[in-house]
Design brief:
Organism: Altericroceibacterium endophyticum
CATH topology of the largest domain: Tetracycline Repressor, domain 2
Keywords: DNA-binding
Protein name: TetR family transcriptional regulator
Pfam families: TetR_C_41, TetR_N
Radius of gyration: 19 Å
Shape: elongated
Helix content: over 70%
Order of helices and strands: HHHHHHHHH
Largest sheet: none
Strand content: under 5%
CATH architecture of the largest domain: Orthogonal Bundle
Number of helices: 9
Number of domains: 2
Structural class: mainly alpha
Number of strands: 0
GO molecular function: DNA-binding transcription factor activity; transcription cis-regulatory region binding
Distance between the termini: 52 Å
CATH class of the largest domain: Mainly Alpha
Amino acid sequence: MATTRAQMMQQTRAKLIAAARKAFTEKGYASTSMDDLTAAVGLTRGALYHNFGDKRGLLAAVVEEVDGEMATAAMAQAERRGGSEWDKLMAEGAAYIEAARNPEVRRIVLLDGPAFLGDPSQWPSQNACLAATMRSLETLAAQGTVKPVAIEAAARLLNGAALNAALWVAASDAPDRVMQDATATFEQLASGLLVMDQGPTG
């Protein structure tokens, strides 16, 4: 079966994103040239411009992919651990913070992403995380597990805390110690949302 134009474009995008993920992790965004990226997959600058506009556009696509994978992995880890809806929400936050030790996540999402793309709360991938957290809090509110609060405000504050904890881990010279402190404190702060006498069951 002949490859369609749309399929070819999708394949080209996938090649450039894969090459960028590798180069940005190893060299950093600023030190990676467009020629490095295109030569690695046998493409021209024109292909990069056509698919992403420029190198910054390619970074945005890479950040969206890696950050999305980071969030998906955190949710999957929480599901494997099981427990209550609250336990799963806390496990997701902990897994997100822990992911900051992954070299690809650290360099692309937590260091270069904010430096070159601006406020992470405006990224599509972060908006998807926000929506998922709001759904979890709505379920918890319906169960009477959390206090009556403005759901979006609570979700934004929880997600912001997890993101800033991950940024702290990524920038630290002692990421393991910082991760433990950040995770424990994140859970302590979040527990303020719980109705009295209810706590993590795991």
